[in-house]
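Show me a record, fold above all:
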Amino acid sequence: MFSILNEISDNSPFKTTSVVLASVGSSGSIYLLVAVTGYLSFGNHVAGNIVGQCKYPSSSVPQRDYTDHIS
């Protein structure tokens, strides 16, 4: 917040509030655009856990045996 106040030539409360609202609004718009585009591209074929849907080749994920310490 302090960096915003230092960079605005007129750092009145109205100008600061408008800059913050514009930045939050633009980032929200981009987020909404990505969400709508993703839904239009994939539809209902995506589950809630996107990371769980990734298919990794077995050679790229190192497997460790954690049972060595059990006697």
Remarks:
- The radius of gyration is 23 Å.
- The chain has a mean pLDDT of 79.
